[in-house]
Amino acid sequence: MGVCQKKIAVHDLEVGMFVSDLDRPWHQTPFPIQGFHIRSQDDIRALVSHCKWVAIDIAESRDSVGLGEIGSSAFSSRRSRRGGGREELQLPPLRIKDPVTYQSVTTLKREMKASKKLLADATVELERLYDTFASEGFRNLRPVAAVVNKMVSSVIRQPDALLWLSRIQQHDDHVYRHALNTSVWALVCGRQLGLNEGLLNHLGLGCLLSQVGKTRLPSEMLSREGQYGPEEFALYRTYVAKGMEILEDSGLSRAVLSVVQGHRERHNGSGFPEGIRGDRIPLLAKVAGLAEFFESLIEPRESFAEPMTPAKAVALLYEMRNIEFQEDLVENFIQAIGVYPTGSLVELTDGQRGIVVSHSPKRRLWPRVMVMTDRHHAPLKSAKVVDLAKYNSSRAAAEALTIKECLAHGTGGLNPAAYGVSGEESRWSLGRLISR
What we know:
Number of helices: 15
Strand order of the largest sheet: 9-5-6-7-8-10
Number of domains: 3
Order of helices and strands: EEEHEHHHHHHHHHHHHEEEEHEEH
CATH class of the largest domain: Mainly Alpha
Largest sheet: 6 strands, mixed
């Protein structure tokens, strides 16, 4: 089934239409999400000021837009309906001192080979460290710091490799997995922001240590995280302070400790432990907090209901800009990970299903997808990687192949470890790379 698109002058746009393309490259506009529903006249005025015509997706246009849709109105004025009417706080844009512009210097294939062992080493060292914290024994942080240094180098070289592996690798302990995945999300965002290598090391180590206070909470509480009553939640909130107590004599830098201390603070002051807001929250803690929240939305938990799909989590983050998270930080995070982040299970418009391997910042709705089923959802004998941006570059809009929807974690027939990838796009076996 093709995408039904129509070219239209911006002055003819109406609220509810879905804008799928512009008359200029997306990265030359202030619109952070490629493809969005028009939600107000402010959105239309913003488009009029930058474009003469746009393409709208007829199938996606609708009278009303739900929270789960990938919308865009970062360029419009405040909306009181966002965030349930909670207070919004607007600050000047983030300013990164001497930002670094990173370029990918290696292929995904090559970096994944190196990242596989790195991720395994990180898991082992993190497990040892947290076990030591739980027993109140001596803590040697050098092995974990060394792993973080290698993680930073990997993300700088090629941001998708470590992110891919962390998304699909299974961990037995939720706390380890949560800390590790949070660190990877944060490093990918920090790279997008242009943080230098030293700051990225502080950020990564802070994220890995941000959960250490949970080792001093009752173990049965951790299996029900997010399902607490008022008294239990009050106890849960103490994990940040407990973590700072554990680390107070560790010799860690102030930057690392600021991540541990501030990763649960929120932009509008609704976080904990101190309820600080805005510019009082250190930048690295802001990045860590956003990454930790995003991971909590999408991570699978045995005792929980189905986790949110990455696409819906991205949409929810977008609704929380200038409420729980600073607006331009949210936008940078989305630009870094894409609308369909690496590791997202997706269904294409022709019915084929697969998993996102990587994405292009310039074509955020057209990532590279490893297709694992045919259009009838029957598993393929050999998976294939389709670069949607390349595939669609020479095709008319009606013949374009795009992502129809993001699928739930654990959707049947979508196990990337079971497939070897063949074809021109990729000649290596993901199944062999991620086998344990």
